[in-house]
Design goal:
heterodimer; A: 7 helices; B: alpha+beta; Beta Polymerase, domain 2; four-stranded mixed beta sheet; 17 strands; NAD binding (chain B); magnesium (chain B); nickel cation binding (chain B); NiFe-Hase_large (chain B); oxidoreductase (chain B)
């Protein structure tokens, strides 16, 4: 263990530069998030992840955000264990009928102000599972969605861009008069 | 094999490849269930169909690498069939699922509670004769455990981490777990109903999204079943590219989960390092095949994308990186007493249960069940590659992690051979459809264990019925046994060492 720890002292960190933000991304997010969101969230976001019936592909990429390359926490973003501690709910999956109530209850357990970010193509409208007897079809059919991140699954880079854009706007908004 | 087919005295139906299917009567069905209970065969699958039930049996009596599979089908004109679970408990949840989805009743089944149907679908028996339901949900009677000082802890379906939804009901005496009961089905998406009537292309996309972490293995299973049904031979290069993707998927999941399990034992350093290795594998997969998880890259007829020279070089250098970085991590794992204090002796799964349930993957191989589809029902290109099937006997968390460590090493060796011997040529062939109804079956080794795919195509090539059985079906139930007598706080660690799929199980 000592050797591994010493090595990490001498080696350059793996963590990569913050993602290059294209203006289009930011513009899209700015319209998605109201000024209220920007003022209230400050520079940090507590995120509660909810799998509402995904194939677990999105979960794998959300997990990857914590690895040394993306290091989500340096941007003030962190995952929390309880909806009571969360500002943002990150919801994946086409929302199965069996998960609908659990999603509603988690949403209701999250204190306001709160924002919902839906992740992955099936979270938009059910994706390839739309039309099934077991699927409600899209997160917005159950709780109000503030931002959608597309992809099947979205790459960690896409996720990071969207979340950093969110927090970037938050801080811009906070500085605004 | 002959003996298994003899035991299935009955008539062969539609063209069914590569293993036989026989239509049997109720007596033969019950006799097969009794032989399952005796341990003569292993249950490889049990699923419903329009007015019939099917049971896939695995015969390993001829020894290592000589496995055989066969399917017995029982028509159920009265909507009933003799329960297999009455004699052979591994069939329990499968029969409850058949009752939920098809409305076929297993007569004599010891447990008649619904399983995937939580009363929320607004439809009863969605794949059989449908009925309208309120969709308001139905209460679920958990099994009881009674005694002085016992208390219950309910966990889920929304968990504290970034994991899939499921409910765990613990009954504990102080810290010690007396009984764990799982309730699953929260991620049920109705995949089998979406598959019915779908084109082969759409069904293949769905198959790749049954369990995202095993998307390559699922796609291979579906493609192989389709190719078997249609009698298509795919180019050798396609077989080899599929195996390359499958081994990359195996390494990515194994290294990631080894670290994640250590993290559940509060040893975060391992997690940090293995997460880096996992990320490197995914990045290389994306560079070579255009998708980090390689979704939709295996298709019926072959593969969707070829590997170029730069891609092969990239994988070679990735292999070198892992060979350099992985051994010191394993040394660390092996030499950290505080970690072993958690993993050794925790969550022991007995040999008897591993064999009875036919537990696949590292769960079975850590408890003395030496079964690996790549060797025992070998499919190309594994029939021409050299590799070992690591086997451990202890059955604890530690053994399950060691199986995965050894499998990473085997996969590295397999990838060397795959890059070295990769045949040139085409990567896919066109697929047509048969002039009549065709059926195919495939068993494929995913990182978690053997995935079964059974498929019936109509004369126009449309999917009539497709059933995909995740290895988790035979792993989730024994987790309940493995956790007994452990402390509640060790459950996350034990659960992670099983690492069953919720989505793959719930369908």
């Amino acid at each position: 263990m000592r050797k591994l720890l010493f090595e990490s002292l001498t080696r350059a960190p793996l963590t990569e530069a913050p993602p290059d933000m294209e203006l289009a991304d930011i513009a899209a997010l700015a319209t998605t998030l109201g000024d209220v969101a920007r003022r209230r969230l400050g520079r940090s976001l507590s995120i509660r992840e909810i799998d509402a019936g995904s194939c677990n592909g999105c979960e794998l990429e959300i997990h990857a955000l914590a690895n040394a390359f993306y290091d989500l926490e340096r941007f003030g973003l962190r995952f929390v264990a309880s909806p009571r501690h969360a500002d943002v709910l990150l919801v994946t999956g086409p929302v199965t009928r069996n998960m609908r109530e659990a999603l509603e209850r988690t949403y209701n357990a999250t204190p306001s102000p709160k924002w919902v970010v839906s992740v992955g193509d099936c979270a938009a409208d059910g994706g390839c599972f739309a039309g099934s007897y077991a699927v409600v079809g899209g997160v917005s059919a159950v709780v109000p969605v503030d931002l959608h991140i597309a992809g099947c699954p979205p790459s960690p880079e896409t996720l990071l861009k969207a979340l950093v854009a969110l927090i970037g706007h938050v801080s811009q908004g906070a500085r605004a008069p | 094999m002959q003996s298994m087919i003899k035991a299935m005295a009955g008539t062969p139906p539609h063209a069914h490849h590569p293993w036989p299917r026989r239509i049997v009567d109720a007596d033969t069905w019950s006799a097969l269930a009794a032989q399952l209970a005796e341990g003569r065969w292993t249950l490889a699958g049990l699923w419903g169909d329009a007015g019939a039930v099917h049971m896939a049996l695995l015969d390993m009596s001829r020894g290592e690498s000589q496995g055989e599979l066969a399917v017995a089908s029982l028509p159920c004109p009265t909507g009933q069939f003799p329960s297999v679970a009455r004699r052979h408990p591994p069939a329990h949840r499968l029969e409850r699922t058949i009752a939920d989805l098809f409305g076929l009743e297993p007569v004599g089944a010891p447990d008649d509670r619904p399983w995937l149907d939580h009363g929320r679908w607004r439809v009863g028996h969605p794949l059989g004769i449908t009925t309208e339901t309120s969709g308001e949900g139905a209460p679920y009677a958990f099994l009881t455990a009674e005694g002085e000082g016992l208390h219950r802890i309910g966990v889920g379906p929304v968990h504290a981490g970034i994991i899939e939804p499921g409910h765990f009901r613990f009954t504990a005496n102080g810290e010690t777990v007396v009984r764990l009961e799982e309730r699953l089905g929260y991620t049920h998406k109705g995949v089998e109903s979406l598959m019915a009537g779908a084109s082969l292309e759409r069904a293949a996309r769905l198959a790749g999204r049954i369990s995202g972490d095993s998307t390559v293995a699922y796609s291979i299973a579906f493609a192989r079943a389709a190719e078997a049904a249609l009698g298509i031979e795919i180019p050798a290069r396609a077989h080899w590219l599929r195996a390359l993707m499958a081994e990359l998927e195996r390494i990515a999941n194994h290294v990631g989960d080894i670290g994640a399990a250590c993290n559940d034992a509060a040893f975060a350093l391992m997690h940090a390092h293995t997460a880096v290795l996992r990320e490197r594998v995914l990045r290389q997969s994306s560079a070579c095949f255009g998708h980090r998880l390689m979704m939709d890259k295996v298709v019926p007829g072959g593969v969707a994308i070829d590997l170029d020279r730069a891609g092969a070089e990239g994988i070679r250098s990735l292999m070198a990186t892992i060979r350099q970085a992985f051994p010191p991590l394993i040394e660390l794992f092996d030499n950290t007493a505080s970690l072993q204090d958690r993993t050794v002796g925790a969550g022991i799964l007995s040999h008897a249960l591993a064999h009875q349930y036919g537990c696949g993957g590292y769960v079975g191989r850590a408890s003395g069940r030496a079964f690996d589809t790549r060797r025992d029902l070998a499919y190309p290109p594994y029939d021409s590659l050299r590799f070992d099937v690591p086997l451990f006997q202890e059955g604890d968390v530690n053994a399950r992690l060691w199986v995965r460590i050894r499998e990473v090493e085997q996969s590295l060796g397999l990838i060397d051979q795959l890059l070295e011997g990769m045949p040139s040529g085409d990567i896919s062939v066109a697929i047509g459809h048969g002039p009549e109804t065709r059926e195919g079956i495939a068993l494929v080794e995913g990182f978690r264990g053997d995935i079964l795919c059974w498929l019936r195509l109509d004369p126009t090539g449309i999917v009539e019925r497709c059933h995909l059985r995740d290895p988790s079906w035979f792993q989730w139930p024994v987790l309940e046994a493995a956790i007994e007598g452990n402390i509640v706080a060790d459950f996350p660690l034990c659960n992670k060492s099983f690492n069953c799929s919720y989505s793959g199980h719930d369908l």
